[in-house]
């Protein structure tokens, strides 16, 4: 889910990491909250599995090559994870979503 969103973003800098963390904390992304995404990020970073597979460069995504390298994506995910941890404790899930 995170990678799909990042295929449309060119800059994997701190500002986008903060904005993505905001979306997770406010449950604005796929209805899941920050703990789900932090667990997912930590699991991906702890794994040796390739995150940026060639599937993300397929024509359905409008690209013939990967937009981001494996190392760039791992660095970005680490920034998002750091941002989520820094903001703990998180506010409760907004009432409109419960």
Q: What is the β-strand count?
A: 0
- How many structurally independent domains? 1
Mean pLDDT: 84
Total helix count? 4
Radius of gyration: 14 Å
**End-to-end C-alpha gap:** 21 Å
Characterize the biggest β-sheet.
Answer: none
User: What share of residues are in beta strands?
Assistant: under 5%
Query: What is the 3D form?
Result: globular
In N-to-C order, the SSE pattern is HHHH
Poorly predicted runs of 5 or more residues = none
Q: Which class do the helix and strand fractions yield?
A: mainly alpha
Question: What is the helical fraction, as a range of percent?
Answer: 40-55%
How do the strands and helices of this protein lay out in sequence?
Elements lengths: L1 H5 L7 H12 L8 H13 L23 H17 L12
Helix pairs in contact: 2-4, 3-4
């Amino acid at each position: 889910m995170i990678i799909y969103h990042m295929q449309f973003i060119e800059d994997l800098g701190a500002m986008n990491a903060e904005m993505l963390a905001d979306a997770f904390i406010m449950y604005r992304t796929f209805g899941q909250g920050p703990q789900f995404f932090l667990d997912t990020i930590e699991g991906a970073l702890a794994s040796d599995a390739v995150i940026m597979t060639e599937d993300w460069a397929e024509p359905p995504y409008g690209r013939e090559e990967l937009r981001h390298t494996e190392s760039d994506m791992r660095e970005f995910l680490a920034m998002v994870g750091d941002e989520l941890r820094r903001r703990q404790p998180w506010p409760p899930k907004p009432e409109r979503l419960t």
